[in-house]
Design brief:
Helix content: 10-25%
Radius of gyration: 18 Å
Distance between the termini: 42 Å
Number of domains: 1
Mean pLDDT: 81
Oligomer: single chain
Structural class: mainly beta
Low-confidence stretches: 1-22, 108-119
Length: 259
């Protein structure tokens, strides 16, 4: 059970595609990444409603190489999250998986592609496809399926063998576009792991800066930091307050044809 929990923490903390477009205060997300690991919980985010429209240059199918380059437990040794020490084994070891970004689908249907009457097609993540490939890159056949709520892009469930589930619910998001062309996103979401014992809750923030490269391989690179905050159900919640209890920093590379 503990091994499964540790690996689940790894895959669910790496790459997040469920984002809503909401402009952050100018430069705040850039400054946040620049000041890693001195973080506190974001306040200038908006409720998660709808889906994120990504830049057109992210359209298409990609192979992503994700490398954990740093991990910090700011409140250790007093507070350390489950799986933190186990995740050290992934340090500087690239993990590869396939993802894709597609034209926006009809709201709530999850199937039909919307015909566009303008040249500005909406590019969104194929969340179920991406989530399944990411999960299986860590857990293999332990992952049965990944489903996105047809009535809301903000709720995703990963179904695991042994009647276990990881439920992720997006609560708030923001984005920022920098003068040098970076597209930065941040997301806050609640996670619930069910099955095999008492349910486990936490709060996660993922902040990612995407940048299109002029060279062909890789075509896109990204700097990503995932922060873990305790949920109110945790006995150490008031000791941690708004500070993260774990921080993971990744370097992402996107390879493939974007058209």
């Amino acid at each position: 059970m503990m091994y499964v929990m540790n690996v689940i923490w790894s895959f669910c903390l790496i790459f997040v595609f469920l984002l809503f477009y909401a402009e952050a205060q100018a430069g705040e997300l850039s400054e946040r990444l620049a000041h890693f690991p001195e973080w506190e919980k974001l306040t200038s985010v908006r409720p998660a409603i709808g889906d994120l429209v990504y830049p057109n240059w992210m359209m298409g199918s990609w192979q992503v190489k994700s490398t954990l380059i740093d991990l910090v437990a700011p409140l250790a040794p007093d507070i350390v999250t489950p799986g933190f020490e186990g995740n050290r084994e992934y340090l500087n070891k690239p993990i590869s998986f396939d993802v894709r970004f597609i034209q926006e689908t009809t709201p709530h249907s999850g199937l039909k592609i919307i015909p566009r009457t303008s040249n500005k097609s909406a590019v969104v993540a194929d969340r179920a496809f991406n989530g399944l490939n990411l999960a299986r890159s860590y857990l293999g056949n332990t992952v049965l399926s990944v489903k996105v709520d047809p009535n809301s892009p903000n709720r995703q469930i990963t179904f695991l063998r042994g009647e276990r589930q990881l439920v992720s619910i997006v609560t708030a998001r923001a984005t920022e576009t920098t003068p040098d062309g970076k597209f930065i996103t941040t997301e806050l979401f609640q996670q619930l792991f069910k099955g095999g014992g008492r349910p486990y809750f936490n709060t996660v923030e993922s902040t990612t800066a995407y940048r299109k490269l002029n060279q062909l391989n890789p075509t896109i690179e990204a700097d990503q930091v995932t922060a873990i905050y305790l949920s109110p159900q945790d006995p150490n919640y008031f000791a941690a307050l708004s500070r993260p209890v774990a921080l993971y920093r990744y370097h992402l590379e996107f390879f493939g044809n974007s058209h």
